[in-house]
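Hi U.,

Before I forget, here's the chain from the pilot set. I'm dumping it here mostly so it's searchable later in email.
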Amino acid sequence: MVGVVIEIDDPTDPRVADFFHLNDPELRRRQEAEGEGLLVAEGTLVIRQLLQSPYGVRSLLLTTRGLADLAADLEGLDVPIHLVTQPAMTAVTGFHFHRGALAAADRRPPTGLDEVIAAADLLVVVEGVNDNENLGALFRNAAAFGAGGVVLDRTSADPLYRRSIRVSMGQTLRLPFARVASAPAAIADLRAAGFEVLALTPDAGAEDVGEVAARPRQAVVVGAEGPGLTAAALAAVDRRVRIPMAMGVDSLNVATAAAVALSRLARRVDRSG
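Structure:
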């Protein structure tokens, strides 16, 4: 049975402060810098992923439709459930949100690189991907092809930003990730731990990724669209690999490219679900 549902009529009610001005990224960054440490999941599908993740839910903001959709999932969950009309949802969040369900959760202490390495045999290393939607899609693809974690350099976007979570369909909440100072240093650590590290590049001189055999432990390194990987990252890897493409097409979206590469290397993926 769903716990106590609190009806909210005033969009400035401090009880729903977790959801104020969600369309203001600068405010969210300031809150994170000041240690508030919140993340927000939107939509019923993503909230279901949140409820199965290690992140502790703080509160929910739901319309009648959202409450009906999530009723079974919220049984036994002892957190404030705030019920609002659609106009009030818009007034609270600062934008016209149609999905009817928002959840706020506490962030967790950062996961260390050693912990991510220990739990995976296929990893993705990300350098300079600062677009939230690209990063979210990359996480979704990494999860789909059995990667056990993601390693992000300090210049990459926040995987727990609302848009990243949404585009990943909640996989940024489920897939372990570590933040590192630099991709080349992390690559060195991965190689020391027994990973074969492959840099994905459009360079015509790179090996065809389809001809690279899966090994017990591998990591795929991807960079931002346009500049690609830094020279230091390329120099640090074991091998450079490419995706063969039709004449006149020189590259793919970073998330798509990672998906193609991971599909060639994926193994031990449980497809029973």
